[in-house]
UniProtKB/TrEMBL annotation:
Native organism: Sphingorhabdus contaminans
Species lineage: Bacteria, Pseudomonadati, Pseudomonadota, Alphaproteobacteria, Sphingomonadales
InterPro entries listed in its UniProt record: PqqD-rel_X (IPR027599)
Protein name: HPr-rel-A system PqqD family peptide chaperone
Length: 97
């Protein structure tokens, strides 16, 4: 597991986001910042899988794998990269243990 995969993340609280699917994109309005983000799969699924928990990329991958029936280890690098992108957008927070 790489350092980016062991990093823990917490999603913006669900009551602070308004999530609206729009064709192949999803709009995520962040109440705190007043910014609407346009995101694509698997970002909305990652946010939903995280809920209010503090998770690593591996834990998110396992939740998604259970929900969507795929091998979470194969998608781990992709999920870790998306979590970093969501953190850069401010939709998830990097947590320091």
């Amino acid at each position: 597991m790489t350092a980016s995969q062991s990093q823990k993340y917490r999603a913006e609280p669900a009551d602070q986001m308004l999530v609206t699917p729009l064709d192949s994109l999803t709009l995520v309005y962040q109440r705190r910042s007043g910014i609407t983000h346009f995101v694509a799969e698997p970002a909305p699924e990652i946010l939903a899988a995280m809920g209010s928990d503090i998770l690593t990329a591996d834990e998110v991958a396992q939740r998604l794998a259970a929900e969507f029936d795929f091998d979470g280890t194969q998608a781990l690098d992709i999920i870790a990269a998306r979590l970093n992108e969501l953190a850069d957008l401010g939709l998830v927070e990097r947590c320091h243990a």
